[in-house]
Structures are given as structure tokens and as C-alpha cells.
Amino acid sequence: MPEGPSIVILREEAAGFAGRRVVHVRGNSREPIQRMAGCRLRALRSWGKHFLLEFDGFSVRLHFMLFGSYRIDERREAAPRLALGFDGGGELNFYACSVKFIDQPLDEVYDWSADVMNDAWDPARARRKLRARPQALAADALLDQQVFSGVGNIIKNEVLHRIRVHPESRVGALSARKLGELVAQAREYSFDFLRWKKAHVLRKHYQVHTRTVCPRDGQRLAYRKHLGLARRRAFFCERCQRLYE
């Protein structure tokens, strides 16, 4: 599942289509996608893992789920969920993703201050939301898109290792300083992720995700296939990541 930084890359790569008119629409989505035909794409935006196409009077939300992908000015052999052709040439093709129309203004639908990649990101608000969830596991809290929109499982595992917190720690047991580190690193690591992914070296920088040995102390890493309410994979070091209970 693409995480927030990957959607930011898509938004940047597709930025040249903003202001252009859609001349043909195809795809196997059950949504009324022909509604976009003849419309001008006003803007491309992102919120966490959501890629947003903004038109006059409506928007389209794309979520890539577990196996979604996209191609710009090229096609896969698979049938697209949504494909848009533009005046002057060029096309956007989306595969194995969720397509949903949004009729309200996006500023009424999305809390931009929750998006760790957005200029409007508000760390103080994130801390308040976390303090209201004292029994939540740190691993689940990082994956809560209403608190950390865009954070996915890779970022979760790496952030918790970076700040030396066990994924099963309770949020309410974290000190104010440690809670601040969690919030700060959710954003900082997301931008590291973005920089490394653009340079095609992201996997080289994994410290614990899909690894077997902790690079900090040489301890064999613990692995849980389904951890927390989110039931996501967890890689962590039981020696250097403290369990706060």
C-alpha cells in the first residue's frame, strides 16, 4: 500500500495535467467516471494516502489499497480502473484502486492539519489527539489516519525504532518528551522517506522493516505478523525499544 510520500511523488509527477481538459475517459470502475469527460482538471492534491483530482463542482478520490498502481503516458496490460486522456496528448492510468466522487469542497472534507506531508500539519493538534487515546498502542496510534494521515506500516516501524519505543507501548504511558518525539519523527521520517524514494534508495535505509538484526545493538529483531488493532506487520528490537506500560 503506497504511503503518503509516494502519493506526494505521484502528485508532483502528474502536476503538468493541471489546467488541462479531459477528452476521454475509460476504465472498469463502477463509479460514473464519464462524468469527467469534457471537464477541466483544476488541481491535483493529496491527503495522506488519498490522491485527489479536483474539477469544477466535484473531485475524485483515488486510494491505491494494497495493490494499486499508476502509469503516466504509458499503459499496463491490465485493464485500468480509471484512465484519463487529455487535450494536447498525455494520459493518466490507474490500476487496482478505489475510485470515489466527492461533491463537497475538499476543504470541508479533509483536515489538512492531520497530513504529515502538508504545510498545514499541526503537531500540537496531533499531540492533543494522542492524549485523548491513552490506551492506544503506539503502533496503532501511528497508523491512525485521523492523527497521522499518510503514515503507513513502513514509517510506523521505522519511527518507533528511531525513537526507541516498543510498538506495544501505551500512548498514555509515554512521557511528554517521548510523545513529542513520536509526533516529530512521524513527519521527519516521512520526508526522509520521500527523499530516499526519489533517489531510489529507500530500502537501503530500512533499519528494521523487513530486517532481521537491529543495526543499533546487533540483537535479532522481533517480528509479529499481526500486531495491534490494525493487525499489521511489526519489526522491532526488544533490547533497545522500551515497552512503556
From TrEMBL:
<dbReference type="InterPro" id="IPR010979">
    <property type="entry name" value="Ribosomal_uS13-like_H2TH"/>
</dbReference>
<keyword id="KW-0238">DNA-binding</keyword>
<dbReference type="InterPro" id="IPR035937">
    <property type="entry name" value="FPG_N"/>
</dbReference>
<keyword id="KW-0227">DNA damage</keyword>
<keyword id="KW-0456">Lyase</keyword>
<keyword id="KW-0234">DNA repair</keyword>
<feature type="domain" description="Formamidopyrimidine-DNA glycosylase catalytic">
    <location>
        <begin position="2"/>
        <end position="94"/>
    </location>
</feature>
<dbReference type="Pfam" id="PF01149">
    <property type="entry name" value="Fapy_DNA_glyco"/>
</dbReference>
<keyword id="KW-0511">Multifunctional enzyme</keyword>
<keyword id="KW-0326">Glycosidase</keyword>
<comment type="similarity">
    <text>Belongs to the FPG family.</text>
</comment>
<dbReference type="InterPro" id="IPR015886">
    <property type="entry name" value="H2TH_FPG"/>
</dbReference>
<protein>
    <submittedName>
        <fullName>DNA-formamidopyrimidine glycosylase family protein</fullName>
    </submittedName>
</protein>
<dbReference type="Pfam" id="PF06831">
    <property type="entry name" value="H2TH"/>
</dbReference>
<keyword id="KW-0378">Hydrolase</keyword>
<dbReference type="InterPro" id="IPR012319">
    <property type="entry name" value="FPG_cat"/>
</dbReference>
